[in-house]
Design goal:
By secondary structure, this protein is of the alpha/beta class. The protein has a single domain, classed as 5'-nuclease (Rossmann fold), CATH 3.40.50. 49% of the residues lie in helices and 22% in strands. The protein is built from 6 helices and 6 strands; from the N terminus they run E-H-H-E-H-H-E-H-E-H-E-E.
């Protein structure tokens, strides 16, 4: 299994696309182990209060929830640090986060045109 860090906007884009998580991930990375940091989980819960259909129960049942890295106060910085340290790609569609991941030599997985996932890096 390959660890995949989940970013808030990446999960939202995946759910919105209607793609099958297992079949699409297997095409780009193999069997995923979804990893969600506490900060992302809190963002998703806040978003779920305004937006329905985010499939948080599905995510919760399929992911490993981990503590935020110490010494970082911004979610994107935490994701970049964990990605770099563990060689985990990040599921995201956030342009700034993708740039920061690329600059740090990290990989990311993006939802492309609501039709497929693509691994970059």
């Amino acid at each position: 299994m390959t660890g995949i860090l989940v970013d808030t906007c990446g999960w939202v884009a995946l759910v919105k696309s209607g793609l099958n998580l297992d079949s699409e991930m297997s095409k780009v990375i193999g069997k995923p182990e979804l990893i969600v940091i506490n900060s992302v989980w809190e963002e998703l819960e806040d978003l779920a209060e305004q937006k329905r259909g985010l499939l948080l129960e599905l995510l919760k049942s399929r992911c490993k929830l981990i503590e935020d890295p110490e010494g970082k106060n911004h979610t994107d910085r935490m994701l970049v640090e964990l990605s770099r340290e563990n060689k985990w790609p990040v599921l995201t569609v956030d342009t700034r986060l993708k740039e920061n991941l690329s600059k740090s030599g990290c990989q990311y997985i993006e939802v492309v045109s609501d039709r497929m996932l693509r691994l970059i890096g």
